[in-house]
Amino acid sequence: MKINRVKLVYFSPTGSTKRIIEEVAKGVGAPVEHIDLTRPEAKTRDFKDFSDELTIIGTPVYAGLIPLEASKRLRRLKAHDTPAVTIVVYGNRAYEDALIELTDLVSEVGFKPIAGGAFVAEHSFSTPEVLIAEGRPDSSDLKKASEFGARIREKLQAAPSIGDVSPVVVPGVRPYRDEFRKSRAPKPGHEPAAPTTREELCTKCGLCIEVCPNEAITIGPTVETQRYACMRCYACIKNCPTDARVMTHPFFAREAMWLHDAFPDRKEPETYL
Question: Is the whole model's pTM more than 0.90, yes or no?
C-alpha cells in the first residue's frame, strides 16, 4: 500500500503533541498536511472527508483520558476506512485509558487504526521550581517517534490494500476509568479555577487570546478569563512572553508537587503496531 500523503490531526494547546506526531510523520517520509483542532474555529469547522491518506491523530492526556474538548472536535471528522495512527501524550504519570479511548473514537468516525502510541512530554503543570518530566520530549523520545513512523510505513507498504492491514490492539479497559478525572473536577458549589494575570507584567500583546482553544480570555482595561470556558490547558501560561499569566489556585501547586514527588522515574514511549 503506497503512502502518498500524511495528514496530521492534533489537539495540542502547549505544542508537545504536535511536535511528537510531526516526528512520527518524518519517519513515514511522505508529504504532510496539518489539521489543527486546537483553534476555536475547529469547534464549528466543516472538514473534508478523509479517504485513503494515512492520518496521524494526537491529543494530550488529561487525568488519564483525552480532553473532553478534543473529543468533541474529533467527532466532527468523517473517514472511510482511512488508515490512522493514534498518539496520546502524557506528563509522566500515566495515560490510563486515553489511548484506547482515542482509538475507539477515531474508529467510530470511520478511521481504521493501524498503530498507536503513548509518549511523554513535560507536564503542563511543570515550573522551574517544580519540574515534572523536564525537557521531554527529548532527543531520545523524538528518535523513537521517527523510528515508529518508519515501522508504520513498512507495515502499510507490506499490504496490498487497507483491507489487508491488521488493526492495532492497544492497552486499556472499557468502560474507561474516570475516577481520577472525577477526583480532579471542581466540587459542587465551587467555581472552577482559571489562570490569572499579573497586570504589572502584562503588555496586553494578545498572545494569550490567540493560543486559547476556547476563547476564554478577553482584554480590556484588564485581562479577564471566563472560568467556565477555561479548560486549564495552560496554553496561555506556557506562551506568555512576560510570564504574566499564572495559576494561583492552591490545588494546582499541590498537584504539581505531588506529580513531582510521586513520579520521578523516567517513563519511555510505548508503541503498538
Answer: yes
